[in-house]
Structure prediction request, 245 residues.
Amino acid sequence: MRKLMLAVGGSLILVAPMSQADVVGLGASVSYWDSDLSGQAANNGDVVDVENDLNLDSDSNANASLYLEHPVPVLPNVRLNYTVIEQSGRGRVGASGFVGIPGNVEVQSDLDLDQLDLTLYYEILDNWVNLDLGITARDLSGELVVQDTNGLFSPSETKVDGVIPMGYLAARFDLPLTGVSVGAEGNFISFDGDSLHDFNAYGQYEISLIQFRAGYRQMSIDYEDGNDRLDVEIGGPFVSAGVSF
Prediction:
């Protein structure tokens, strides 16, 4: 992971002198993400399927972002991005049970995932073709609570928490004089058995200072924190509205 940070950081230094904004730019957006969840959670060797056993469904997935671009040479542009994912469901653990809860017992489960990203990036291209390259520090915090519906057994808690460095890449293609564009962006890392990938592709329409987007976002988390592990995929369409100055 440290090698990735050094490699990406070195690349950013090399491209910095040739990638500056002409003026200061500021933007913000909020979005709603209608996603589905699949995969597994593990705690002390016990494994549960979050989709087939726990029947987790999306309750509320939201995203907010803020960015600042400037013409100062060498210094990177800055983007903040916050994602909250809340899923809950009522299901039944498998025959082997899960962390003190016997097999085939009906359970209520809640999954909370919070992600705060700080991204430092440079604009490699800035015309009708836009290309950004950078690094992201992601503060990931997740908790899965599983408890039997009768309250006879102690609830299980599976937690992951860490600050993870990731590569950042974004590209956008503008159709001149129309306000229409298409683009994609992503954060990614794979290291020592852990991996995180977070990509989205979108279409955008801009009128005056207002931007509207619609697209698809796919996130994959395979992360181990001590005896706890989340290996899940979250994907689905999103819509967003934002302003750009």
The chain has a mean pLDDT of 89. The longest strand covers residues 106-126.
